Amino acid sequence: LAHTDKAVRDKGFVNLKVWMKKHPELERLDYMKLWKGLYFGMWMSDKRPVQQELAVNMALLINDIPAEKQAMWLDTFWETMQEAWEKLDTHRMSKYMLFARIVVAEAFQVCRLRGWPQELLRGFAETFTRSTSAARSGPNIHSIGLLLQFTRIFWEELQPQLDACKDAPEGFMELLGPFCDLAERSYSDALVRSIHQHMLRKVPAQLAPAVGARLAAAAAGGRVPQRNLQALQETAAFLGAEAAPAAADAEAPARGKKRKVVSKKGKAKSGAAGDAQTGGGDTSDGLVLPPLQLPEAALAVDGGEGSRKVRKVKRVGRPKAKAAKATAAAAATSGPSNKERKRKKTQDLKKARTARFRRGGR
């Protein structure tokens, strides 16, 4: 699997798939050994198409794992990546980020195809809990790079699977539970900011009430450190404010459809006003971040009340044209400069040497 020749790696990969189907009794230690070999197989692959093909083939191995061990397979993958993430250099970071994205996407697809089983969701939640435990234990305990990558790709890879379902699956909050705990107790400001921005504030409208209620209860419980309390309160208020219109739209009667068609202009105006207030974000797929609060000095407009007028300061001095004419006139009235004298003297000496050489040659 870790051979330098691609043909040898491909042959080893085919043999691995056959071997895994014949041995469904493999345990956790066996899966750890397999992921270590697959990790170095990705290490030896070069060029983007080759890396992408290999990552897809590795991600599809979850379909060859018995259903009751798929959560363990993903758990061993996550543990292998966490152990090796700090050892990656900048040249190989991008392909392992792609590798993690493809494996997570395939895991979510398996969940949807199996009907979002409770035991599989619970196994994934336990994996995320173990992965985030180091980030909650203290500052600089473990690298948070892999967790940051996961927070960015979570909804990007999960949303297509949720769109294929009519309603959010039961027990789905278990997947978000470890990251809600991490937003409450993490020591890393960057990780907390990424969780709020890329995960909690982008939940679908149907999940917003449950997530907002959990965050509000945690903020009111008094167990959240002061460094994370403000962000938690703001996200809870944001989800609560955005969940109210969604609930009102869901409870609207079916007979109101004709009125909506008649009042298209009014709807367009209200939508434009809402976009102006929320920064033009689209909330059809998920909730978006509120607009940034700029300081008052940056919002002041020239000419308005309380604004700061900027005065243009003109340069003191003569224009360029007048300065050029004055320089030319001064050069015409004065004699040659020192540089011109030296240059002329050097040219005269060269002419004299040339003349002496010619006379001596004759």
TrEMBL record:
Residues 255-268, 309-323, 352-362 have a biased composition (Basic residues). InterPro entries: RRP1. It comes from the Eukaryota. The keyword Nucleus applies. Residues 247-362 are annotated as: Disordered. GO terms for cellular component: nucleus; preribosome, small subunit precursor. This is Ribosomal RNA-processing protein 1 homolog. Belongs to the RRP1 family. It comes from Zooxanthella nutricula. PANTHER family: NNP-1 PROTEIN NOVEL NUCLEAR PROTEIN 1 NOP52 (PTHR13026), RIBOSOMAL RNA PROCESSING 1B (PTHR13026:SF0).
